[in-house]
Design goal:
With 491 residues, this protein is an alpha/beta fold. It has 14 helices and 22 strands. The strands form six sheets. Strands 14-15-16-13-12-18-19 form a seven-stranded mixed beta sheet, with helices on both faces. Strands 9-8-7-10-11-21 form a six-stranded mixed beta sheet, with helices on both faces. Keywords: Oxidoreductase.
Length: 491
Amino acid sequence: MDLSAKLKDVSLLQTKCFVHGKWVSAASDKTFAVDNPSTLQHIASCPEFDPKDTEAAVAAAQDAFKTFRHVPARTRARLLRRWYELMMEHMDDLASIITAENGKPLADSRTEVAYAASFFEWFSEEAPRIYGDTIEASNPSCRLRTVKEPIGVCGLIAPWNFPAAMITRKVGPALAAGCTVVVKAPGEAPLTALALAELARRAGIPDGVVNIITALENTAAVGQVLTTHPVIKKVSFTGSTGVGKLLMNQCSITLKKLSFELGGNAPFIVFDDANLAVALRGLMASKFRISGQTCVCANRILVQRAVYDTFVQMVVDEVRQFRVGDGYVQSTTHGPLIHQRAVQKVATHVQDAVARGARVLLGGEPLHSLGPNYFGITVLADMKPGMKLCYEETFGPVAAFFPFDTEEEAIALANDSDVGLAGYFFSKDANRCYRVAEALEVGMVGVNVGALSDPVAPFGGVKQSGFGREGSKYGIDEFVITKMVMTGIDD
């Protein structure tokens, strides 16, 4: 696939890692292939960094931190603002790169670029507002204050499903706080991260402040360097709960500060007093975005029995209008899954549900005619507790409907999970809206809305969905330490 032919600015298509302001190959000269998940065509090859290569990137970040930590907040703000402006100026090219390596439709890719850039805009405005406090000490002969300082070099590990936004959501607050970073780009979709590095260079980000490295086969070994290296003081990871537990164990050796955004299994509740048209719009936004490959998409759709049949039919009618295909085709609404392992997981969930009594109302099969990474948009009815989908995140285009009778039953079903990232519910009863929002065991609740992501809102979960928050005014807190200074004075 000749991706460069789709770009206005071909210099955004970088295929080397970005370390200390330079484009570098792996010391071994090894590379790995980046393929289009829709067509399986080869796009490019990127460096297969190993632990020694990674250590060099960490050293670059440490060297840069010595000076960047003292750069005035207003200067850091201007750097982030310029990076934001460059992303917006190159939206179409960045979107083309995302679609090539991720598969999502171009319209979704453009939306992601705007969303990703918004984190640089937001944190450029927050950088000058990192405040300490003056506290009245118990001892009248002392004066007490706190100051916020950058924590240091940060290891940031990003996923493939939002290859731009999941990086900017981490890098933005890190740089705003005065930290330097080593970003491990996703092996499935590294080209977007490298394009962001090129724009960082143009924005004037000092050498070594932002380092972006790639690996596929060596991902575990590179991750171990980021989680055990004594120079790295903070690790931020977005990915599966299983990998998060492994990384957390590795980080314990040096007691790093952590923020982990892990797996979800979002409940989506429709009560019988809901505006069903609003609920339908919310479900389309939540469930099927990039073919269901988001950590906050609805995984279990709970509908009160009085409106169950009506709402399920509304969803089927809406979903029939979707068009699955290559992301570069204008009529495509939903693209492929990221790889064949993802297709197999979705197929396993559907087969398990059907074997246990669920009905397939739409789809339910891979779309082999389009390619090995395609799965049909699927609607399952009459789901029951105990099915695999109930306790595993599907990460695919499957809308699975569970009937319920009472509010108490819905809450119990929704909370019957060891993860708690996002939850949604729809109701016109104001009292119920307060009750249910407070009862759901999740870090984020959508009440009569199906899209939660906003740079001004704190993003994160509870239970085994992780800890820490990204975005919002709380996002910078993850990258600073609070230092207390007590000063004795003479009477």
